[in-house]
Design brief:
Layout lengths: L1 E9 L5 E10 L4 E5 L6 H9 L6 E6 L2 E2 L5 H8 L2 E5 L10 H11 L4 H14 L15 H13 L5 E5 L7 H16 L3 E5 L3 H4 L6 E5 L2 E5 L1
Helix pairs in contact: 3-4, 3-5
Length: 219
């Protein structure tokens, strides 16, 4: 599903912050992405999200060389990828239901075709009673679960998460990782970036360790 071939990345004329990346991610797998602060985890996720192009090498998704895609091709490819941010990024003037349904509205789908699915998903993540609440009335954990629901409402093949537990307490962090694990069991390929190493000991998933610009996969 994902393959990096001799990938390097630099910003401007600076040194390469990612170099000689060679790895494969199989469909339906779950990987934690770890590494020290400033190692380039967010940059790697941006390459996967296709919001950055590598300076050199190839980023292959679904068997296609993404560096050769035009803008329309990139947009089509991005529809298969979901993203969850640490900062939630919910729109303050939209309800929980409206925030989660937003990706489908942007695609031009009629509400009658997705309303039941959005409500079912919100009930599944424990927000069935918060459909009409604005983000200001949600707790940090509720906001993050809403952000996760928004990321997966379009049923992406790949789900990326950038420090999704950074703004919640340890107990809720564990519950959120279990939610990601359940999504993975349903078939979604997940790469979750985190610096909370003790949390990872509760799960058997392999780790992509990013250090000195290179990735090594353990487990």
């Amino acid at each position: 599903m994902i393959e990096f071939l001799n990938v390097g990345l630099r910003y401007g004329q600076g040194p390469e912050i990612l170099r000689d990346l060679d790895f494969r991610i199989e469909p339906g797998s779950f990987h934690f992405l770890t590494g020290p602060s400033g190692a380039g985890k967010t940059s790697l996720l941006k390459l996967l999200l296709l919001s950055l192009k590598p300076t050199r090498g190839k980023v292959m998704l679904f068997g296609k060389d993404t560096t050769q895609l035009d803008q329309d091709g990139l947009l089509q490819m991005r529809r298969h990828i979901g993203i969850v941010f640490q900062e939630f990024r919910l729109l303050d003037h939209l309800t929980t239901y409206e925030n989660v349904a937003l990706p489908l509205r942007v695609l031009g789908e009629q509400e009658s075709s997705y309303r039941a699915n959005v409500i079912e998903l919100l009930e599944w993540v424990g927000l069935g009673e918060r459909l009409n609440a604005l983000p200001a009335l949600l707790s940090g954990g509720e906001k993050q679960r809403a952000a996760i629901a928004r990321a997966v409402i379009g049923r992406p093949d790949i789900l990326l998460a950038d420090e999704p537990t950074g703004n919640v307490d340890p107990d809720l962090s564990l519950r959120l990782i279990r939610l990601f694990a359940e999504l993975n069991r349903m078939g979604t390929t997940i790469i979750l970036a985190t610096h909370e190493l003790p949390l990872l000991d509760n799960f058997p998933f392999p780790r992509m360790v990013l250090n000195d610009g290179q990735v090594h996969i353990h487990g």
